[in-house]
């Protein structure tokens, strides 16, 4: 399974990776504080939908 980072998505979507990480935290997706973010394809799809709306 391929994963993506918030930084990769940020470049694609034209927003800051900090903004994406903040939104991810608001969704409750960070289970381990300070862990490296690796998003599943489904999570990446949801991020794209949110930031393209």
Automatic annotation (TrEMBL):
<dbReference type="InterPro" id="IPR010749">
    <property type="entry name" value="YfeC-like"/>
</dbReference>
<protein>
    <submittedName>
        <fullName>Uncharacterized protein</fullName>
    </submittedName>
</protein>
<dbReference type="InterPro" id="IPR009061">
    <property type="entry name" value="DNA-bd_dom_put_sf"/>
</dbReference>
<dbReference type="Pfam" id="PF07037">
    <property type="entry name" value="YfeC-like"/>
</dbReference>
């Amino acid at each position: 399974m391929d994963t993506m980072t918030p930084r990769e998505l940020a470049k694609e979507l034209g927003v800051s990776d900090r903004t994406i990480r903040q939104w991810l935290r608001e969704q409750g997706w960070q289970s381990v504080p300070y862990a490296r973010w690796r998003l599943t394809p489904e999570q990446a799809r949801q991020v794209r939908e949110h930031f393209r709306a």
